[in-house]
Amino acid sequence: MGHSRRRGGLRVRMLQRLCTVISAVLGSAGCDITSPEPPYGVPCADIVEVVSGNVRHAATHAPIPGIQITLTRNDPGAGPFASTVADAAGRYLTEYRKCVREGTTYRVLAHDADGPVNGSFRDAEATVTFLSDDRVRRTEKTVDFDLDPQ
After folding, report:
1. What pTM does this model have?
2. How far apart are CA 101 and CA 63, in angstroms?
3. Comparing 74 with 34, which gets the higher pLDDT?
4. pLDDT given at position 61
5. Listing from the earlier edge strand, what are the strands of the sheet with 67-73?
6. Per-residue b/e over 49-79, b at no fewer than 16 CB within 10 Å?
7. Rounded to an integer, what distance in angstroms lies between the CA atom of residue 115 and that of residue 119?
8. CATH code given to domain 47-147
9. C-alpha span between 67 and 75 (Å, rounded)
10. For the chain, is the Cβ count within 10 Å smaller at the N or the C terminus?
11. Concatenated DSSP letters for 47-81?
């Protein structure tokens, strides 16, 4: 009987160690911060994050079409992963799927890509953060830009 208890205790300890190893492996294989998509094979909730807003002239508040809006991670050296152009009413919307990550901050850049076509405007930048409380199937944040002419 004592021998059977030792085997049972050994099995429990082995299962606990196995669970610890599995947790460590899955925890370190979490979402890749350099990509909006998780690495292949990593279980991850499919979340849609949306950044939208309006681009207006700072003095007249008139809509500015043709302004390029780009999203990048707030990490050194991170490149853009989403981009769009403001429509004729100055509205823009970026929608992307990503892995759930707590406290993700993005830089939102507004750039006058069409030059003097609609007037020349200075670039602007803002940040937006999606918190763990925002983690629903679709979350939208609004970032409006009031651009100054050059």
Report:
1. 0.65
2. 34
3. 74
4. 95
5. 80-85, 67-73, 104-112, 124-130
6. bebbbbbbbeeeeebbbbbbbbbbbeeeeee
7. 7
8. 2.60.40.180
9. 24
10. N
11. EEEEEEEEEEETTT--B-TTEEEEEEESSTTPPEE
